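Pair request: fold both.
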Amino acid sequence: MLISSQFDSGNIEVLKGDNPSDIRLNIRKDNQSDFYQWFHFRVSGVQDTECKFTIENAGGAAYLEGWDDYKVCASYDRETWFRIDTAYDGKMLSWEAMPEQDFIYFAYFAPYSMERHADLIAEVAQSPLVRTSVLGHTLDGQDMDLIELGYGPEGRKKIWLQARQHPGETMAEWWMEGALDYLLDMDNPVARKLLEKAHFYIVPNMNPDGSRRGHLRTNAVGANLNREWNVATMERSPEVYLVREKMAETGCDFHLDVHGDEALPYNFVAGFEGIPSLKDKQMALIQMFQNILAKLSPDFQTKHGYDEDEPGKADLSICTNYVAETHGCLAMTLEMPFKDNADLPDPDFGWSPERCRHLGRACMDTLHRMIDEL
């Protein structure tokens, strides 16, 4: 038996790995940070062997409510990720499995590797509607990729989409696949009409370094990018600095920052209600977006979510607040679950990459229906 995580987005420490029936593990912290919860590893040489896995430091993870009713993700082919019953006793996380093949992968959520990210950029670049560029580089020297989509008359709405400020929230880049599939389908009349009215600026992965390193929440030097928007520097958070500067150059009429939530088993939107310059139009638009999306997708709801900030008390280091305040536009954070959608559960797969893609498509359909109001 061999347990390994020395690969793109891998994260695990083996405390005891000589007995398949009692495998003891720890999750490694993000570099220069106390955040941890993301794990991703492979176990080899265990076909038809009863295995029990215990993560001993689960009780110190960043979001303890994330373990309640959680089921670990597993895969043989790294494409289909199914769920395994998982127990949490307040200190340790554990599950049992009897793999059907020589090796099996486990992860906190279906991983989205930097290799797959590179494939995504290469694939969309084949479209004549797409222009790809590199805004700059991360602290580890990786590219900050930007996709621009749609060209035509001046005056089109400037639409910004971004994902994975928090690298362990891989559902966000799976969502991006669905949104891009929708927008680049030239047999889709809705997409064609939307691209007549909108110029898209898309950053599928805001945190390449954290993604490759197997971090939950931070970049290479422990910066939580979603707390850097009003203080970003090239020395600490170049990812935010580069995107923020490009957005200042282009302008922004609509902004969607895609995330995942460890604790809440729902899809929901978080807004900007506490920004100092809050406008009635912004509030009308965010209500419109949510109402339309809830009608288009049974996976989206408006009952459960985060508490609103008090008037004038918004934290402008958070992306959505910063963009809404700086650009006076509709800016939102879309949250998806690590667990399952409690309103429409799937016991075998939980919230999955496929459902993330569907929600991405529904969000683009929603945008089309309200583009003239932005």
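--- second member of the pair ---
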Amino acid sequence: MRQICFKETGSSMSVTCDLLDERAPQSAEFLWQLAQRKSSFDAIHAMWTGPELSCPLPASVLPDELSQNVIPTENATSYPEIGNIVLASIAEGTVEGLPPGNFFDIGIFYGEGGRMLMPFGWIEVNVCARIVASDLEHAKSCINAIRQTGACTLSIEPAG
């Protein structure tokens, strides 16, 4: 099983996740490609979706080969569970107010009550990875610390 790791230095977060290659192959591959590049992006605690660390990814911050293709619905939900890593994939021009190009968002859900109700309505996201059980409490603690301090830089890399 392929694994990735999310890291954030301010909270000392280092969380390993199993990719769900069989359930969400294209979404898992998207995360794997970012991990292979040891990518870092701005992230914030979500406002609308509940217990989520959100990493918005407009096309402008992604390599062309990742930003050009909208990922189809796979293993989708509007109610992410604790430990779910989700990927939103929104085609250019389908939601008013987003930056130019396709838009993606990685969500790390660390508590109960996750819901994908945005200001523009309900969306479905692809559940493409899961925090390993032994890292879940650490993830909760770190993301709560991030919530108190505001924005952060989230890194993604292969685990191990």
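Observation on the second member. Residues 3-158 form a domain with the Cyclophilin fold (CATH 2.40.100.20).
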